[in-house]
User: Which sequence fits this backbone?
């Protein structure tokens, strides 16, 4: 491309490709300016929107975008060699994360600060006399941005120049700035004295840590060709479990030093404050001891033991660390229960039971202990042999060169997040987690069986969800036609029935239609989905109560002898129920994928004729995929009906079917973690955008995200091993994703 | 030349495939025209003929992919089976009756590993259902172990043990051919149908392949029905040959008889029988007569559409 930059003498300006490109980029900025922002004129002044978009000062920003795109296109090839340098990706991710944290996220929930975003908060904080000087300095308007730019620039310079010393400066700088941001935020929170669930400071800290990691990767990788992925692999190959210990260290320090443990109204008590607050109350001695000294001791001990075990690769010590971590976790939860129960008994701030009014600290500490226990487990099971690192793309696809403990560590991180993040979140996000993210993750897992594994495009998947919901409504007696008295069930008991009903529905849809393939099957399933919805709207005898739907579906409850659990209205409790159900489904499906049925699905997806000739009963295998997918969807339906309490046909429109397909494709067809990640991200995104963009623009942004994803990562967020092969071909020797470095090498080689 | 050992004595030997007067048409085109043939237990029977002679159509009729309009096919797949009708049966049922096959244009499951490809074959003979897989019940785990060890045995047999964890699609062409054979053997067949197993392979691989075919036949006691264009290979492994041309059976017999058969030579060279005989005498070793490039179909080519084999 650089050849085209040189202009030959006598060539007219108009023929220069650069001019065309520049004009194109600027035109793009105008289009963007028109698309983003207010689009309505007024009756009196039709040109208003146009003038605001194009003639206002904001156009400068859009023109800058155009210039940026132009520069990228023109100088892209020169930048290319640097893209695979170690650290470039974490640097980019970290930079973006910090920008998002600074510009989009809330830094406080307090109503004192109008929208809680960083800029308004920093305006307010810099003028507040009572705020500790350290925090006031941080929030003085241009300073945080300047700090970020400096840290980013140092990191970028270190990567480009390959200077180890500069890299370490970058590490120190980014970590310091990140911690400073978090600490200033917590000072603001304690000054405002209201409970706080904002994520901005935490996300900013994570972004700065990513920048620090980018610097560390540069400092520690000696090889010319090494890249970030290879670096991560080498860390795991060096000492499995150590990364988990590092994460636990950060979480634990935040929990024990800065974070709030107890936050009834006007209190944001850190662990020290909480200990003194409860010192003269009737708190159980164990919990008192935990708050005042035992907690710190346990954290230091289990951290040291896990780190030492990981360093020595000693299985026995590692089991010790695992047990110590779990014991500490239990003690931590006991202490949290004790203080919140005592607080609730004295009716602090309208608490109506244990677990209310707790701050983030206790949950962060729980996550830290879980990760330390997990690190012990990873070390204990990884064994002493060093992992080999995949050398080619096909090695990776074939699962060769798996780094011991890497997937376990990732699973542990996700589990820790799923267990201990929700209690820290605002009620709004708890609700989103249950009624959007959780349910759609379950649906995506089910559809992944049909679309991802068996390769059958099903556009009417939501029908089974509807069948599950209406089955529940019938058996709890919420429909106009009632079941006989002895058949009335509690919602939880409806789960097996819904599974059976959906199995039957899946088979009866599949049996006549599965001789169809591809697009034809998609159209038939689309029709099926609509039939189910329309029958729910309008049917003789009106047994579904038509468009009004069913209401008064009871919440799930268990009454077994002395055990009484009622899920009631709290989203958090549903989240844990959903977590258990989803966990069981994942375990079962993971085994299924590795079983002969999983391979048979892959076989018919790859080549149906060959599968038949190899003796695979393709009809039965496809029917099983349909039925198993459908029954998962049915479980989600039961859960949905009993959590929301009312259902109507509008919950089951075609759009939802298409969305679930989009989630699976976005996440990575045929990949269980992919389908879950896809559903989670794409259900989280609209809720996140609620705060950021006008409601009518939301779909456009989601569409843009999907579009970019399909262009740059067509195999999905977490590509399936089996599917990646199809998209990338088999002789991909370039393998930019993997490094040719033997395990354990390159660590500590700082030259 | 191993034909001297296995002179067929038609009256006493057990028949595997008994094909009687089958005719297969695609619209107006007759792909197979009134063909009758018998295949006997434990023999290596080769089907040869020029391109478009109806060889693959015959294979597809034998395995239930195509349904001939006329005639009958009966099958006694494994030794001691009672003969059963083939026409009208589903492909996978015929496979369960003991017929395994490979394809002219390799049809593996490219995104599964070599091991998994073979396991798919082995596991079609197993019982454990989805529920026992989800719960990880003991008998399912036992079957899983059995299928893995059986698959490794078969990979060792075809010389792919060291490539077990490679993706099938990333294997070399000749390796893919052998993997396809291993997958077919995984279904523990009584008869295996090999459709041009040597197409696109080099001379060394061809020799190995001949050894492998003999091994399958002699050691594993599996009858082999072979379509092949490479006459050297065919003549060296086949016990008996049948020759198809334009959908009709034009000759049947021992390799040396077929080599001298004027009708066969005419069919291949497109000349009159007398000229052909003269030509053969000048050039005794008939070698790769057919246009071999036509068999170098790519992996993407799903092939096997009706009419592909018709002239």
Assistant:
């Amino acid at each position: 491309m650089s050849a085209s930059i040189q202009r030959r003498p006598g060539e007219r300006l108009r023929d220069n490709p650069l001019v065309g490109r520049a004009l194109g980029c600027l035109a793009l900025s105008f289009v963007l300016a028109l698309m983003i922002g207010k689009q309505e004129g007024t009756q009196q002044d039709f040109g208003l929107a146009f003038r605001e978009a194009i003639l206002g000062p904001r156009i400068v920003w859009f023109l800058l975008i155009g210039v940026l795109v132009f520069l990228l296109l023109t100088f892209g090839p020169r930048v290319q060699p640097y893209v695979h340098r170690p650290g470039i990706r974490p640097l980019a991710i970290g930079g973006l994360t910090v920008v998002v944290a600074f510009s989009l996220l809330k830094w406080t929930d307090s109503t004192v600060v109008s929208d809680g975003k960083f800029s308004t908060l920093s305006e307010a904080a810099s003028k507040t006399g009572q705020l500790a000087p350290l925090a006031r300095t941080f929030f003085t308007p241009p300073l945080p941005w300047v700090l970020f730019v400096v840290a980013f620039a140092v990191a970028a310079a270190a990567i480009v120049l390959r200077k180890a010393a500069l890299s370490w400066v970058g590490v120190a700088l980014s970590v310091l700035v990140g911690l400073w941001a978090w600490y200033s935020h917590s000072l603001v929170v304690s000054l405002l004295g209201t409970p706080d669930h904002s994520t901005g400071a935490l996300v900013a800290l994570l972004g700065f840590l990513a920048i620090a990691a980018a610097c560390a990767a540069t400092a520690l990788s000696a090889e010319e060709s090494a890249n970030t992925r290879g670096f991560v692999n080498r860390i795991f190959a060096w000492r499995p479990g150590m990364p988990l210990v590092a994460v636990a260290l950060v979480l634990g320090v935040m929990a024990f030093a800065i974070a709030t443990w107890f936050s009834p109204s006007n209190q944001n008590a850190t662990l020290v404050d909480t200990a003194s607050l409860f010192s003269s109350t009737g708190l159980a001695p164990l919990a008192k001891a935990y708050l005042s000294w035992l907690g710190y001791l346990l954290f230091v001990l289990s951290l040291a033991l896990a780190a030492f075990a990981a360093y020595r690769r000693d299985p026995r010590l590692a089991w010790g660390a695992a047990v110590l971590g779990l014991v500490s976790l239990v003690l931590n939860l006991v202490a949290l229960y004790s203080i919140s129960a005592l607080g609730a008994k004295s009716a602090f701030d309208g608490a109506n039971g244990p677990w209310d009014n707790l701050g983030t600290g206790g949950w962060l500490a729980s996550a830290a202990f879980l990760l330390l226990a997990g690190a012990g487990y990873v070390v204990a099971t990884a064994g002493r042999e060093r992992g080999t690192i995949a050398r080619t793309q096909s090695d990776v696809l074939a699962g060769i060169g798996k780094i011991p403990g890497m997937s376990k560590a990732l699973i542990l991180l996700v589990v820790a997040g799923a267990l201990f993040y929700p209690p820290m979140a605002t009620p709004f996000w708890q609700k989103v987690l249950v009624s959007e993210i959780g349910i759609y993750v379950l649906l995506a897992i089910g559809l992944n069986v049909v679309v991802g594994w068996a390769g059958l495009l099903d556009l009417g998947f939501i029908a089974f969800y509807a069948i599950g919901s209406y089955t529940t409504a019938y058996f709890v007696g919420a429909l106009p036609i009632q079941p006989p008295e002895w058949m009335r069930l509690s919602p939880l008991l409806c789960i097996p029935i819904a599974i059976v009903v959906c199995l039957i529905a899946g088979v009866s849809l599949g049996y006549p239609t599965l001789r169809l393939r591809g697009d034809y099957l998609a159209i038939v399933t689309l029709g099926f989905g609509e039939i189910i919805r329309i029958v729910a709207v309008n049917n003789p005898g009106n047994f579904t109560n038509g468009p009004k739907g069913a209401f008064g579906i009871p919440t799930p409850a268990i009454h077994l002898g002395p055990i009484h659990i009622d899920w009631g209205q709290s989203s958090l409790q549903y989240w844990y129920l959903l977590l258990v159900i989803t966990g069981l489904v994942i375990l079962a499906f993971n085994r299924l994928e590795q079983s002969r049925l999983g391979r048979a699905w892959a076989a018919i997806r790859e080549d149906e004729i060959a599968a038949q000739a190899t003796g695979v009963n393709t009809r039965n295998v496809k029917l099983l995929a349909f039925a198993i997918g459908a029954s998962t969807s049915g479980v989600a339906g039961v859960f949905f009906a009993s959590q929301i309490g009312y259902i109507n046909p509008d919950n089951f429109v075609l759009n939802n079917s298409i969305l679930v397909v989009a989630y699976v494709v976005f996440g990575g067809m045929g990949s269980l973690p992919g389908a879950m990640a896809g559903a989670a991200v794409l259900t989280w995104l609209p809720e996140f955008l609620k705060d950021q963009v006008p409601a009518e623009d939301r779909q456009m942004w989601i569409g843009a995200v999907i579009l970019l994803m399909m262009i740059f990562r067509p195999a999905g967020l977490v590509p399936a091993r089996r599917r990646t092969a199809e998209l990338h071909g088999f002789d991909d020797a370039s393998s930019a994703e993997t490094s040719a470095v033997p395990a354990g090498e390159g660590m500590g080689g700082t030259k | 030349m191993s034909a001297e050992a296995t002179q067929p004595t038609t009256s006493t030997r057990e028949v595997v495939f008994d094909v009687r007067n089958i005719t297969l048409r695609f619209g107006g085109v007759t792909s197979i025209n009134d063909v009758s043939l018998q295949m006997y237990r434990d023999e290596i029977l080769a089907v040869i003929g020029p391109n478009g002679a109806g060889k693959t159509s015959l294979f597809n009729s034998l395995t239930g992919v195509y349904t001939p309009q006329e005639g009958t096919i009966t099958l006694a797949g494994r030794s001691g089976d009672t003969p059963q009708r083939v026409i009208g049966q589903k492909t996978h049922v015929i496979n369960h009756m003991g017929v395994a096959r490979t394809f002219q244009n390799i049809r593996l499951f490219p995104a599964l590993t070599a091991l998994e490809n073979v396991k798919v074959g082995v596991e079609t003979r197993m019982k454990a259902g989805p529920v026992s897989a989800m719960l990880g019940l003991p008998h399912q785990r036992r079957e899983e172990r059995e299928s893995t060890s059986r698959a490794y045995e078969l990979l060792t047999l075809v010389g792919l043990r060291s490539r077990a964890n490679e993706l099938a699609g990333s294997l070399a062409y000749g390796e893919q051919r052998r993997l396809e054979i291993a997958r077919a053997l995984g279904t523990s067949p009584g008869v295996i149908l090999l459709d041009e197993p040597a197409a696109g392979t080099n001379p060394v691989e061809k020799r190995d392949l001949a050894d492998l075919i003999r091994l399958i036949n002699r050691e594993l006691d599996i009858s082999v029905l072979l379509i092949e264009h490479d006459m050297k290979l065919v003549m060296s492994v086949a016990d008996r040959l049948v020759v198809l041309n334009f959908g009709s059976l034009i000759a049947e017999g021992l390799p040396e008889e077929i080599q001298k058969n004027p009708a066969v030579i005419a069919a291949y060279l497109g000349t009159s029988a007398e000229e052909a005989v003269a030509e053969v005498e000048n050039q005794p070793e008939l070698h790769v007569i057919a246009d071999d490039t036509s068999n170098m179909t790519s992996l993407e080519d799903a092939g096997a559409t009706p009419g592909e084999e018709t002239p």
Q: What stands out?
A: The beta strands of chain B are 15-26, 29-40, 44-48, 70-75, 84-85, 99-101, 191-195, 223-227, 240-245, 248-253. The mean pLDDT of chain B is 82.
